[in-house]
Structure formats: structure tokens, C-alpha cells
Amino acid sequence: MLVLLMKYPNVAVPNNSTITRLIARFRETGSVSDKKRTGRPTVLTDAKLAEVRNVMLRSPSKSLRRLSAHSQISYGSAQKAMKKLKFHAYHVRSVHELKEPDKEKRLVYCRWFRSFIDSNGIGELDRVFFSDEAWFHLNGYVNSQNSRIWSTENPHALHETPLHSQKIGVWCAISRRQIVGPIFFETTVNSVVYQDIITQFISLLEIDEGDCWLQQDNATCHTSNRTMNFLREFFGERIISKGLWPPRSPDLTPPDFFLWGYLKGRVYKNRPQTLDELKSNITTEINLINVRVLHKVATNVVKRVRACINEQGSHFEIYVIKHVKCIFIN
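The structure corresponding to this sequence follows.
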């Protein structure tokens, strides 16, 4: 032992008892490595995993905390079970039901739009304003983390959440270049209210946007004879509306597939207590959306149109590789 200490002064030298244990272990096992410790037995036995799988197949919306209580395992074990079983949490997403005639109308519009872009380039979307209105409720914050379904495959589930509270109406128009709005309203939108909104919109346009296009959905207040005559006075034939715009197609217009969801995920973070506070939040968040984001949204519009054509007018969002949610503001 003294020889070792003198030869290796900077190395910890094992004592006699340690060496004796190593010799005994080698004689017993043929190795000086530590024996594998049995440790605490796993609770996720094959039987327990089968039980968890059956529970989630019967109740795919069950939270992990409820699963852990139901199956008498810890929250961490519930997470591990989901991973072992290859179950994933999918967010519930609402889609409009498409009737067979809708699909043909979507194809007609998308082919027209594809030709429009192929002829003019994506930069032409600087002059195309996609418009829509939405209601923002004062207590309208919905925690999307609670709207999940556990499954081995995306179930594309639907979910409706009625809200009854103080609310403010918001109208916006989005181009590749800017967002015009918010324009607020407090009453149900009829032709008179809508024409007032459009008058405000026109007054907010830049000088070089006088020959822009307007897209709108087919709501009656948008497409009445009185309203259409009013719109043609400024836009002429540069209107994407009834006759060209397909019904039940919010997946093709940026206010629906991008803006409203983006805003509703942000404007309630500080829990506004009054409609004025909510309006201020909406205005602030819209002003924070920069041109880089709008360019990506415009690119996504084109991607969606092409995907809709590929799917013959049917739902296509599960095939859009990069969802706009991922490119909001990074």
C-alpha cells in the first residue's frame, strides 16, 4: 500500500477492504463491475398499460390528471404511459361542414385565384384585402390547453363553445402589405352598418391602393343589392364576393385562419375588465403584426388554394405542412 502511495501520490488508493470486496466479486461473477440493482419495480406493467390504453380509447378527452386518479398511477407515470402507447395530444379544431355543391364552388374559386397569382405574381396580394368581422366577448378567453384529445391518430374533432357576455364587434381587412383596422362596431351588422364600415376602410387606404380588390364572405349584409351597388362605386369589378367566393370557406381567408385566432390568444392575457380595455388590447396587438408576418400569411393563402385544388375542394388543412400558427411572430 505504501508503495502505491509513493508511486501514485495524486491518485486515491483503495484500502484493503475495498480490494478484498473486488476479489470476492470477481470470483463470484467473473467481473469487478457493480451488480445490477433491481430498484423499484415499475408500475407500468403490461397489464397496467393495457388498462390505460382502454381507458383512453373509451374517453379520449380525459386529462392526464384524471387518468392518473382513475388508474391509480402518478401524473408522471401517466405521461410515460402516453409516450409508451404512442398517444399524442391533439388540439380540437372547428371546421365548417362542406356540402357537395360547396366543393365545386371552392374548386372554381381556387382555380381562378391560382390563375390570378400565376398571371400577376404573389406581390399582387399587396392590393387584395381579405375582410371579415368577429365578436370579441369580454369573458371570451378560452384556454386551448384544456381542449385536447388523446389518440394515436389525429381525430379532427369539433368543439363548440357558446359565449354570453359583453362584447365588441371588430372588422379588419388584411393584405400582404398591411392590416386596415380594427374598425369597431357595437350593433348587429346590417347593410347600413356595413356600408359605414366600408366607408371608414376606404378613408384609411393609402393613395396607391385606390385600385385594390376587396374580398368578403356571402353574408346578406355584404351582398344585398344596396350594398353591392355601393361597393361597385369604389371597387368596380374588383370584388371577390357572392358568385365567386365559395360559401363555408373560412379556411381560405386570412382573418379566419389567422387573425381572429391569433388575437383571441393574446388580447385576454391581462384579463381586461372593460370593453375599452379589450378594444385597446385588440388595437395594440394588430399594430404589432409586422409586414414579415403578413408576407408569410399571403404565402399561406396561396398554399391553401393549391391544397384545396389537390383535395378537389374538400377540407385540406391537415395537408398544409406549415400551419400559420407556427409563423405568427417568432
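The CA atoms of residues 112 and 244 lie 9 Å apart.
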